[in-house]
Design a protein that fits this description.
The chain has 461 residues and is of the alpha+beta class. 28% of the residues lie in helices and 22% in strands. It is elongated, with a radius of gyration of 33 Å. Its cofactor is (R)-lipoate.
Amino acid sequence: MAITIEMPKLSDTMEEGVLSAWLVDEGDAVSAGDILAQVETDKATMDLEAFDDGILLKKMIDEGDAVPIGEMIAVLGEEGEDISDLVGDTGGSDDASEAAASSETEAASAEAASSQPEPASPETEAPASPAGDGELAERTPEPVPAPTDASGERVKASPLARRVAQEHGLDLGSVAGTGPNGRVVRSDVESALEQREATPDAAPETAPAPSGDGAPTPQPAPTESVKIDVGYDTETISQMRKAISRRLAQSKFTAPHFYLTIDVDMARAASVRAELNERAEAQDRARISYNDLITKACALALREHEYVNGSYHADEGEIRLYDDVHVGVAVAIDEGLITPVIRNADQKGLTQIAAETRELAGKARDRELQPEEYEGATFTTSNLGMFGIEEFTAILNPPNAAILAIGGIRDEPVVEDGEVVPGKRMKVTLSCDHRVVDGAVGAQFLDTVRGYLEDPMTMLL
């Protein structure tokens, strides 16, 4: 019995996926556990596995097509099995299906033509009935011909490509296909549309109408402003960028944000970090960054301020205060931003946090993170200090109740014991969801974080 393969939900925020590559061909035998394709989600590119044995009878979508969760993308079954009841009209992209559809259209046209009465001769033709006799004459609509190319051959195109072309009034016969066997896919249609937009139609020249005395009639000066074409490049919105746009817009306009900023003395943290890294190198262990110190300080502070480690759930009518401390660390990649999670960060040492952070950041940049490595954060940090940013505010990472924006460490003069001495300062800003975290609670949390960073040896106790 044939089995349909549907687009799976591969992340907690995924709504649709892009099939980036097929790894098997139609007619290939597959076994449970084999990788059928690679799917681009809003977080990473992941493998699509087969859960049953069989023959890949039909691919329902092309490489590069985006489909929502639950939509059929392939059919698995036994060799030679009839799957017409499963694929239905969606199988029209196949040559055989297109030929069948073309034959049905031609047959319907012939039947309609044979059912029409013989045309009357000119001598006996009755005059047409005038309009307004209370009835409208019924007309049989002519079938819409399938798109053809310059040679009259039927154009092979994916359903999505057909829909996009129809929406923009584009003739598929003029589009060169880059898909299998010259099939037109969505990217081909988008390229053709971009080329059409970049080539404005030439305006026809019109000669001025002569006046009565033979002299040309003067034309009024144009009053409209001249349109200046500005060149630009376009790129398809990735699944990750769609998710970022959707989630952060929801966060910004749903959760009432407020912001708290403090200045932290990082002189002792710099000294302790240098000493710890000397020992780490001697033991061939991961070097500790300032970000690792901040992750550890936040994790310990979250243990003392449970509301900052919580989330607001309006539908359930509850505020959740989490037992575990999972710190998400924002990592910038080409497509956007992703937050690998350091789980139970309050229970881990600095070198372990350092090693895990580097491993997860590398996997994030290679788009190899698994869902369990980026889901479930209870608090998030975002560090732009390495880019020279001294201070900024971050948008909450839902459903977290807080996120810490970390600026760069500044070398500047400070006053100690009445004397001006060199100092190291760092500004951090806590964005809070006021539905969970009140101002005093957020301030107390920041004061605890500052205490750990200004006396980092307390984090080692």
